[in-house]
Task: inverse folding
């Protein structure tokens, strides 16, 4: 379905620095580095309330399973994009390496703690994960979620997933090649926005030191 499973890496790079979240959310989003994956992801998954844990793993699972799962994610090359508040991961998007043939798209998974739901966190995580997958050269993504996880199904459909129901689960794929041209202008705008903000912040101390009365402004935060 996806040919080689990979597409050439384009000239743009995924924005790996912190991404500011909507005003309704107080944290930021970034890709976790290797040494922090285990503790941050494990603690996040253990904090999920029973309903959220059931939705994430499509069943009631004990803490021992969560511990083993976090270890596997930290060791098998899974990319973790995290929403962080006050040093704690409150939401995570997982991009798992392919465990089948090279033609198979990688599987993705999402989890958001109840305290930060309905704040646009899931949308930001999904968008950043798609950008990361494209940068890595993937043509598509595979997603599996419980049939009762209506929020995740709606989010997946928002990003073009075609879901089918089977054996108590909803499974589907997202064709990244179809979305690529539509997303490139957005990535360019985001990069320009970050550059302008960085220049404004860098210039501010210089203007103040010179005693200039000219106001220095920075772009207003916007929904990503």
Result:
């Amino acid at each position: 379905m996806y040919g080689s499973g990979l597409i050439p890496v384009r000239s743009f790079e995924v924005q790996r620095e912190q991404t500011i979240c909507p005003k309704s959310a107080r944290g930021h989003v970034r890709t976790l580095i290797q040494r922090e994956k285990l503790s941050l992801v494990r603690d996040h998954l253990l904090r999920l309330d029973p309903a959220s844990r059931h939705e994430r793993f499509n069943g009631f699972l004990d803490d021992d399973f969560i511990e083993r799962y976090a270890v596997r994610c930290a060791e098998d090359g899974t990319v973790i994009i995290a929403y962080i508040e006050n040093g704690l991961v409150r939401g995570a998007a997982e991009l798992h390496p392919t465990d089948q043939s090279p033609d198979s798209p990688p599987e993705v998974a999402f989890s958001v703690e109840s305290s930060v739901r309905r704040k646009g966190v899931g949308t930001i995580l999904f968008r950043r994960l798609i950008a990361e997958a494209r940068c890595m050269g993937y043509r598509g993504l595979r997603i599996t979620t419980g049939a009762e996880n209506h929020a995740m199904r709606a989010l997946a459909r928002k990003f073009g997933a075609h879901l089918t129901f089977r054996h108590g689960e909803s499974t589907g794929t997202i064709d990244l090649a179809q979305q690529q041209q539509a997303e490139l202008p957005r990535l360019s705008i985001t990069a320009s926005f970050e550059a302008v903000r960085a220049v404004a912040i860098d210039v501010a101390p210089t203007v103040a030191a010179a005693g200039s009365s000219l106001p220095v402004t920075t772009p207003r935060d916007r929904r990503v």
About this structure: The beta strands are 19-20, 28-31, 79-85, 88-95, 107-112, 140-146, 162-166, 169-175.
